[in-house]
Amino acid sequence: MRATRNIVILTGAGVSAESGIATFRGPGGLWEGHRVEDVCTPEALRADPALVHRFYDLRRAALAGVVPNAAHHALATLDRDWAGGLLIVTQNVDDLHERAGATRLLHIHGALGSALCAACGARAPQTGALPPGSRCDSCGSAALRPDIVFFGEIPYEMDRIVEAIGACDLFVSIGTSGAVYPAAGFVEWANDRGAATIELNLERSAGSEQFDESRLGPASELVPAWVAEILAGQ
Ligand code: NAD
Ligand code: ZN
To answer: N or C: which end of the chain has fewer CB within 10 A?
Structure first.
């Protein structure tokens, strides 16, 4: 096996679960009687913008009451101390990776702390509620929406991700169900490239058999242990 230089890490809702942010597919995956998949779509945004904006306003407000857990902190330590290449690709829209201190990070599905202008594409930091019809500071259109990639929309920064996976020696998937593409397919790209692949998840996922190794347990225990191993072997 060749030495590990370049690492790509994919994180999902499971990494934030122990901070108290609910995963989508766990028990109670309904929100006010709606399937989450029905709220997070461009069609829903057109049909009932108040409902969709409120859903994300509540998620954004909830961030004030949560803090990063041991898994976020361990990944931030890896980011600081790993001398090789590293990219953390998170599917999470929360900001717990950055609050723990991670910087080599991108949000493939967008972020609660950002608003996107549907008219001109400008982005602006968003803290409080974002009612439908909020105005864009750049172009003046009443077109601000949550900066979130809805089901059926194209994930952000795919070029950077393709490049990073194409150059990685180790691909690690943490707390993700392997149900949402294209992220669910990253392990295949990593395997095609000849990288080692590890999954750290509470339970076996849809894509488990595609990984060289699966470690099962809570992210707050598995991730610090794995990071310590990787840094010790550096
Ligand atoms: P998911 O809900 O589909 O799957 C979560 C996975 O995490 C499951 O496999 C589960 O077994 C595992 N898990 C649960 N608790 C865990 C723990 N303590 N330690 C380790 N693993 C644990 O989430 P997903 O795969 O990220 O995909 C869902 C989509 O929902 C994503 O696109 C994401 O954008 C969005 N989402 C984001 C957040 C967030 O920002 N925190 C929360 C919910 C959903
Ligand atoms: Zn604009």
So the answer is: N
**What domains can be seen in the chain, in order of their start residue?**
1-20+68-109+155-234 (3.40.50.1220), 22-65+110-148 (3.30.1600.10)
pLDDT in tens, 25-50: 655 566 667 787 778 899 999 999 99
Ligand 1 pocket, mutate which of 15, 16, 23, 97 (most atoms under 8 A from CB): 23
Q: Among residues 8, 12, 9, 27, which one has the least CA distance to residue 178?
A: 12
The 10s digit of each residue's pLDDT in 191-200 is 999 999 999 9
Most informative mutation of 24, 39, 112, 150 for ligand 1 (most atoms within 8 A of CB): 24
Task: Report the 10 Å Cβ neighbour count for 190.
Answer: 25
Whether residue 169 has pLDDT greater than 60: yes
Residue 53 pLDDT exceeds 60: yes
